[in-house]
Amino acid sequence: MSDGGSPLRWRHAQHGGPWQTGRMREVFAHEAVLDMAPDADAQAPGAAITAALCGHWDHEPPCPLAPHHTCAARVGGELHVRTLFAVEPTFYSDVRERIDRALAAEHLSGPDGVTARWQLLGSHRSDVAPDETDDAQRLRASG
């Protein structure tokens, strides 16, 4: 998936939190491609990422480690997942590892007891797209 033509874009930001050390946050993007049944909950991978970064997918702001937003879009038979996150450089590797681990788990059980399953086909860093600049600034400033 190319950065400029990604079907996934930012929709809303969550707020930053107590992991701040006073240094400026930078905004990064992470993309993944999953194989997921068409009737499976396409929001489950994003919830898994939020749980990995925040402790649970349903939490009050602020996000304790990295303000972020994940969106997903079905492209052909694949689910493309894009996460924008703002983090101090000190925590960059930790955030990226948490995202990768959440997606590599390949499942998430929801509050209704239904388990969404997927297969991680690929995951990589991405650049923040030019049309995401305003959203990236909001993420950077949140918290």
Written description of the protein model:
- This protein has one domain: Alpha-Beta Plaits (2-Layer Sandwich), CATH 3.30.70.
- It contains three helices and six strands.
- The protein has helices at 44-54, 92-104, 133-141; strands at 26-35, 68-75, 78-87, 107-109, 115-117, 119-126.
- The strands form two sheets. Strands 2-3-1-6 form a four-stranded antiparallel beta sheet. Strands 4-5 form a two-stranded antiparallel ribbon.
- Strand 2 and strand 3 form a beta hairpin.
- The chain is globular.
- It starts with 25 loop residues before the first strand and ends with a helix.
- 34% of the residues are buried.
Q: What is the overall shape?
A: globular
Number of helices: 3
CATH class: Alpha Beta
Main sheet record? 4 strands, antiparallel
* Radius of gyration, taken over Cα atoms and rounded to an integer in Å: 14 Å
The share of residues in extended strands comes to 25-35%
Task: Sum up the structure in keywords.
143 residues; alpha+beta; Alpha-Beta Plaits; four-stranded antiparallel sheet; two-stranded antiparallel ribbon; 3 helices; disordered N terminus
Topology at a glance:
Layout: E1 26-35, H1 44-54, E2 68-75, E3 78-87, H2 92-104, E4 107-109, E5 115-117, E6 119-126, H3 133-141
Helix pairs in contact: 1-2
Summarize the structure.
By secondary structure, the protein is an alpha+beta fold. It is 23% helix and 29% strand.
